[in-house]
MmcQ/YjbR family DNA-binding protein
Amino acid sequence: MAHPIMFSDDDPGLAELRAICLALPGAEERVSHGRPTFRAGRIFAAFGGSEKIRPGEHRMVPSAFIFTPDAVDLPAIDEDPRFFVPAYYGPYGGRAIDLAGPGVDWAEIAELADASYRRVAPKRLVEELDARG
C-alpha cells in the first residue's frame, strides 16, 4: 500500500529547495513515504519529516530540509539551534532545518544541499558539477 502524499507544492520552502536540488547534475525528485526526496542515485535531500523527541514521541516538521552534512561541519551544525536530528535519517548522519523558520539563508541551504549531494553522487556527476564552476 502506498503512503499518502504528505506535502503540497505550495509548502514553505519546497519550490526553492526543488530549484536548488534539481539544478545539480543528474538529480531527480521522487516521492518516497509520501514526501519529496532528491536523488543522484541515492537520496541526498528530503523535504518534510519529524524530530524524535524520545521513544514514541515525535515533533512533526512538514517543511524540514533533511540532508547529510560533511563530518567536518557536523559539530557546528549540532551547536546551531536552527538544526535538529531528524527521525529515521539521524542515525545515518542526517540533520535538518525548518524551511518555514524565520530568516532562511538560501545560500546556506544551497551549500548544505551541495555537500550532501557530493556524498552520494557518482564521480562523473561531481566532476560535471565542478566543471560548471
Q: What stands out?
A: The radius of gyration is 14 Å. The chain has a mean pLDDT of 96. The CA atoms of residues 68 and 93 lie 6 Å apart.
